[in-house]
Design goal:
The complex is a heterodimer. Chain A is built from 2 helices and 3 strands; from the N terminus they run E-H-E-H-E. Chain A is α+β, with helices and mostly antiparallel strands. Chain A has one domain: Phosphoribosylformylglycinamidine synthase subunit PurS (Mth169, Chain: A). By secondary structure, chain B is α/β, with parallel strands linked by helices. The chains are: A alpha+beta, B alpha/beta.
């Protein structure tokens, strides 16, 4: 069972890397792009079905290490 | 004073830090490997050097801050031990919760390596009492993620409790809130800073502005 954790910076946190990407896209003529936020994807391979693992366990995995709750939020999906 | 210097895979300022402490004849300076879960008996100060622990994977300091020695250091600090974290050490202290806030990517997105003028904001009996009040010093900075961030209410608390240790003067190099370059914990026993005072303890190599900090830790005053 694979679980995908998608991590993004909170809206209030400056994302200079996202800004640099947006600038580059605009310079390449993609004027449709308003702004860019860069995040991370982490795939977890689990030895059990997701339904058997409590939501709290997955949240604990995320909040104990994968994210810093001061600056980041996350979402979880099965893949 | 008995000083321990933590080494992680990727630490690269550990020898400089050893040399800086050794110059002021503390009782003992020893290196501590990150896998130990018990600190040596009689330790007074734990210092976490700069570098790129665990390659800065995931987030700077994230993986190091979950290592056995950091769990021991959190306990050590909570029972009154002194802790100093420089550069990557500061990032680790924020990640493990001993210091408030977080260090994110420099506003310019660039790695910055240069001499930086700083102000000593609070004279602290363990760390900075040998400097004059509001003294200006020059320490090198060398970081990619030095943009210190706290929410506005925590920033106010830092100001109210005199927890701001160092501020950038002239131009803020990385976008940190309130030009903050270093902070103390609420009880002032933990200090974290981005600049490198350990690289300024020799007049032949850049200057001696860092000397009072290490002299203070090794010899007092502590009041």
């Amino acid at each position: 069972m694979k679980v995908r954790v998608s991590i993004v910076l909170k809206k209030t946190v400056l994302d200079p890397q996202g800004q640099a990407i947006a600038m580059s896209l605009k310079n390449q003529g993609f004027s449709q792009v308003e702004s860019v936020r860069q995040g991370k994807i982490i795939d977890l391979e689990l030895n059990e079905k997701l339904s058997k693992i409590s939501k709290e366990t997955i949240e604990k995995i995320c909040e104990d290490l994968l994210i810093n709750p001061q600056i980041e939020t996350y979402s979880i999906q099965e893949v | 004073m008995n000083v321990g210097i933590v080494i992680f895979p990727g630490s690269n300022c550990d020898q400089d830090l050893y040399r800086a402490f050794k110059k002021f004849n503390p009782n003992k300076v020893e290196f501590l490997w990150h896998k130990i879960s018990k600190l040596p008996k009689g330790l007074d100060v734990c210092a976490i050097p700069g570098g790129f622990s665990f390659g800065d994977y995931l987030r700077t300091g994230a993986i190091a801050s979950r290592s056995p020695i950091i769990r021991a250091i959190v306990e050590f600090a909570n029972s009154g031990g002194f802790v100093l974290g420089i550069c990557n050490g500061f990032q680790i202290l924020c990640e493990c919760g001993l210091l408030p806030g977080v260090l994110i990517r420099n506003q310019s997105t660039r790695f910055i390596c240069k001499d930086q003028e700083l102000m000593i904001c609070n004279r602290d009996p363990l760390f900075t009492s040998l400097y004059q009040k509001n003294a200006k010093v020059s320490f090198p900075i060398a970081h990619h993620d030095g943009n210190y961030l706290v929410d506005p209410s925590t920033h106010q608390l830092l100001l109210d409790n005199n927890q701001i240790a160092f501020k950038y003067l002239k131009q803020n190099p990385n976008g940190s809130i309130g030009d903050i370059a270093g902070v103390y914990s609420k009880n002032h026993r933990v200090l974290g800073l981005m600049p490198h005072p350990e690289r300024r303890v020799d007049s032949k190599i850049g200057g001696c502005d860092g000397e009072p900090l290490f002299k203070n830790i090794c010899q007092g005053p502590y009041y």
